[in-house]
Amino acid sequence: MGSVLAIVGFLALIVFVVIPIHELGHMLVARRFGFKVTEYFVGFGPKLWSRKRGEIEYGIKAIPAGGYVKIAGMNPYESVAPEDLPRAYGSKPIWQRALVILAGPLSHFLVGAILFFALFASYGDSTSQVVVVGDVAPTLGNHPSPASEAGLRVGDVVLRVGDLENPTRDTLGPYVTRFAHEHPREPLGYVIERDGRRITLSIVPQLVTEGGETRGRIGFTLGAEPLSVPEAAAASVRYVGATAWNAVTTIPKIFSQGVGRTFSVLFSDEPRRRDDPTSLVGVSQQVGDAGERGDWGTFLAYGAYVTIFIGIVNLIPLPPLDGGHLALLVWEKLTGRHADYRKLIPVSAAVIVFLSIFAIATVFLDITEPLPAI
């Protein structure tokens, strides 16, 4: 049930939150500068529902694969009434047109920041070096786990272990392993903070063989401590920047290596790798696995990453993407001439066909040969 809820929630987030907000960004800025906006639709294809308010028709279409805002004059084959020419797209200053185009992709960073904020305020930053108990295993091997027997609880912050002050995620494991090897079956003192109080627990580590290596374990996983509102806000800004940069560096690899790799796997017996390109279907499968475990922090993290990634993709300087429109505005600014959008229709069509084929290929692979589990 958790898996289905996570998948439905994730897809609903993208289709019914991220896309409408993207188009809303275009529309609000366009109206602010006096552009004539005539349509605001989510989806493509046959119209399912619409309502007109003022001069704008709002609606939903059958294919949930995007959306659009119709501004007078943006379609090069559309005639504009003489009285609307001052409000047409091409009549407005370049800087206003650029802000209208940018408003869509930039909305992704805002939504991503909100999702990251919810993650950090509710679940904390899992990359922090502070040792927080995330989950306590009831058993370790065939016996009750030392952590559960000692009364360790979810959310406890580990302040000291033995003579190791302020342990981190990197230092705790090796220290406990060394102690368990040197002092088998001897208790190790854990000083924890719980509800503002310091508590000392005596816990005997167990030696467990994992992947051919023997390690000291007491039976708890690492979690994170929820951040305060200012801390969560600062962390969300940092993560938006880091995620955007990761997307910027990943996209060239997708086109230089990932496309060829996708079609190689599609037409051969090669197994998929974890770093292969995936679609929203593949991401939703991973989100579903997290939902099945009750890991809603991962749900928020995936939602934020995908939202920002889509925003960066929209800035690729190719028509009909928003980045293509921005590139044309830069050309107009440098040359002082209006671009002939009709000449770019074949380029737009080629980009749409290529992206559609690539998307269909990755969806097919995600259904028939999902990425290996993390």
Alpha-beta content class: alpha+beta
Please write the string of helix (H) and strand (E) elements: HEEHEEEHEEHEEEEEHHHHH
What percent of residues are in strands? 15-25%
Number of strands: 12
Question: For the terminal residues, how far apart are their CA atoms?
Answer: 21 Å
Helix content: 40-55%
The rough form would be described as: elongated
| Strand line-up in the sheet with most strands | 7-6-8-9
Q: pLDDT average, as an integer?
A: 93
DSSP helix count? 9
Radius of gyration, rounded? 26 Å
Uncertain stretches: none
Question: What does it look like?
Answer:
The protein is built from 9 helices and 12 strands. Helix 5 (229-266) packs across helix 9. The two termini are 21 Å apart. The longest helix has 38 residues, at 229-266. The chain is an alpha+beta fold and 374 residues long. The strands form 5 sheets. The protein has a 4-stranded antiparallel beta sheet. A two-stranded antiparallel sheet has the order 1-2. It has a two-stranded antiparallel ribbon with strand order 3-12.
